[in-house]
C-alpha cells in the first residue's frame, strides 16, 4: 500500500511540473499517466505474483517518467542510458513474474 502511495505521489508531482509544458498533448499524457498508475496498483496488489511484478511495474513507470523529463523538462547527462537500463530491467522483472506465475499454474494442474 505504501509503494502505491509513493508511486502515485511521485507521479502527481511530476505531472504538476509537466502540465504547463504539455500544450496539445495534455489530454493524452494525463490519460497515459492514469493508465500507468493503474498498472502499478494492479501489479502491486497482485499478491500471487510476489514483489517482483510490482517492482517491475514501478521501474517501468520510472523509465517512462524519465522519457517525459527528457521530452518536456530538462534532460540530464546520461538520461538515455537511464531510460534504456530501467526499461530493460523492468521488462525482465515483469516477464519473470509472468513466467513464474505460468509455471506455478502449470505445476498445480492435475
Structure description:
By secondary structure, the chain is mostly helical. The protein is 84% helix and 0% strand. The protein is built from four helices and no strands. It has helices at 2-22, 26-45, 51-72, 79-107. Helix 1 (2-22) packs antiparallel against helix 2 (26-45) and helix 3 (51-72) runs antiparallel to helix 4. The longest helix has 29 residues, at 79-107. The chain is elongated. The termini are far apart. The model has no long low-confidence stretch (mean pLDDT 89).
Instruction: Count the E strands.
Output: 0
State mean pLDDT (0 to 100 scale).
89
Structural shape: elongated
Number of helices: 4
SSE series: HHHH
Low-confidence stretches: none
**β content, as a range?**
under 5%
Distance between the termini: 35 Å
Question: How do the strands and helices of this protein lay out in sequence?
Answer:
Blueprint: H1 2-22, H2 26-45, H3 51-72, H4 79-107
Tag the structure with descriptive keywords.
single chain; 110 residues; mainly alpha; 84% helix
Summarize the structure.
The chain is an all-alpha fold and 110 residues long. The chain has four helices and no strands. Helix content is 84%, strand content 0%.
